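Late entry, evening session. Most of the bench is empty. Finally got around to the prediction I had been postponing all week. Sequence below, unchanged from the version circulated by S.P.
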Amino acid sequence: MPHSHKKKTLAVKRCLAVGLLAIAAAIGVLFGPSALVLAQGPTRIDPLADNDVGALQGKYLEADLDTLVGCYAETAPRGYIMPVNTPGATIYIGVELPKSKLADADAVVADTQRMVNDADGSYRWDGSRVTVRGTLQPMDAETEAQFRAYLREAGFGDDEIGPDDTCTFRPLMLTDGKINGHRTALLIFASAAALLALCGAVGMTLAAQKK
C-alpha cells in the first residue's frame, strides 16, 4: 500500500472513531440519566398504603392498581384518576395508560364503581388490577386543565375531589412506560445505539494504532 494512501486510510479511521465517540456522547447526554434509572429498576409502591408523595416525585415507580375512580378522555393513551394514601389524607393524581392496558384499567374503574355504590355490603373485589411502571412527574398545563375540567364536570371543585378537605387533587402524572418523559423502548434502543457507537469507536482507534 502506498504510504500516502495508508495515511489517508488512518485519517479516515480516526475521523470515524471521533464521529462515533461524538454520537455515543450525544446519546449519553440526552438519554443517559433516564437509561440509568431504567437499568436500576423501579421502586415498588402500594398506592393505598401511607406514602410521601413529595418524595416520590421524579422517581421510577411500579404499582399494581386495583382502584381507579375515573378517566378524563376516551382516547389512547388515556388518563385516569387514582387515589394515593398519605399519612394524613388521601390525594388523587393522574395515571396515563397506553392502549394495550385500557381494557384492564376500565375493568378496575368498573370494579371501583361497584365498591363505591355498594349499599348492602355485598361487594367483593373481582381481582381487577393494572400494573403501571413510570416516573411521577408534574402535569403540563394542558393536561392539568383537562383533568380539572373533568373534575368540574363530575361535580367536584378545582382542588377538592372528596367529601372533605383532606381529599384533594394534585396535578401529578404517573405515565406507564415513560421515564422522565422518555419511552422505555426508546431508552433501550438509545442505550444499544450508544454502546454500538462506543464499541465502533474503540475498534477504529485500535485498528488505526496497529497500522
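Two things to note before I forget:
The mean pLDDT is 78.
The two ends are 11 Å apart (CA to CA).
Will write this up properly tomorrow.
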